[in-house]
Amino acid sequence: MKMRNGISARAAKMLLGVAALAMLLGAVGAGLHGRGHGQGQTAAHGVVTPLASANLVFDGEPTCLKVARENGDPDIGASTFLLEAPSGCVVPAHYHTAEEQLMVVRGDVLTGMGGMAETTMGPGGFAMMPSKAMHWFTCKSKITCLMFVTFDRKYDIVWAQPAK
After folding, report:
1. Contact call for residues 54 and 148 (beta carbons, < 8 A)
2. Count of structural domains, the chain
3. 8-53 pLDDT, tens digit each
4. What is the largest CA-CA distance in the chain?
5. What is the CATH number of the domain that holds 23?
6. Coil, strand or helix: which one is 15?
């Protein structure tokens, strides 16, 4: 591990990831404030959840993926989730009506989107999937992958039809 100005490359990468995550969450928060308080889009109070307190649970398909709702109400509007995927976990091709933003916190995530080449993202990696854009991902690292995802409106999911 190389040292640069007293900071290891790994530490610098981690700091970059944290800074990028803070910017993403700030942008999402700023976007929510512009939508009006009457739509249930913004909490009347702040939200602080230490990672150790995140309530990660299995929530349907795919069975390897754990989720924790961090903010918002996915049944009526914008929301933020923490996702945990063990090594080898595959989330098959699907899309959402909402725009999705994904940021990798830990691990290496191979992600793909219709019309684009697949890319492996490490900590701090970011992807934005427009409304109804087919996309997929796989945790490719030996360690469990941890990601944040945000949706800009009510959550839904449409799985790609398997080839016959």
Report:
1. no
2. 1
3. 655 545 544 544 444 444 444 444 444 333 334 455 789 899 999 9
4. 56
5. 2.60.120.10
6. helix
